[in-house]
Amino acid sequence: MSTLLLALGLVMIVEGLAYALAPSLIERMLEALRSLPEAAVRQIGLLIIVTGLILVWFAWRLGAGFM
Hints:
Largest sheet: none
Oligomer: single chain
Shape: flat
Helix content: over 70%
Distance between the termini: 7 Å
């Protein structure tokens, strides 16, 4: 459970930094996403999920403990 809270906290920090440091970039990215077809947005989401799973797997293989 503590690892899940740590991961959630880190995601919130990164997301918050993006909004705090580059709000206009976030707006442009949202506009670009709105112009893409739904299938493309779904593929991007799946790619992000797979990338996240690979990163978690690498962290686990490098010795990051999961309780």
